[in-house]
Design a protein that fits this description.
Length: about 80
């Protein structure tokens, strides 16, 4: 991610994580499997992996708490396959 962002790990967590959360995790929750390709493109553009995606879900704080995210099974499996 350092190739596409300017900031240290603290700035990334404070500034980037909330935007990436909205553009990836929340979007998958709302739009479902229809947006999987676009989310994967966003991950690729920041050189992020599926593991990074999982870490973002775990690091969610406050409104980004993982317990509040309910990705449909179909969406999860489509995302994992691609």
């Amino acid at each position: 991610m350092r190739l596409r962002s300017s900031g240290d790990r603290h700035e990334i967590r404070q500034q980037y994580l909330s935007v990436l959360w909205t553009q990836m995790i929340k979007r998958l929750e709302v739009e479902g499997k229809d947006c999987v390709d676009e989310v994967i493109d966003l991950l690729d553009s920041y050189f992020l992996t599926k593991d990074d995606f999982d870490y973002m879900m775990e690091l969610g704080l406050g409104p980004q708490d993982m317990e509040r995210v309910h990705l449909e099974t179909q969406t999860k499996s489509t995302f994992t396959r691609q």
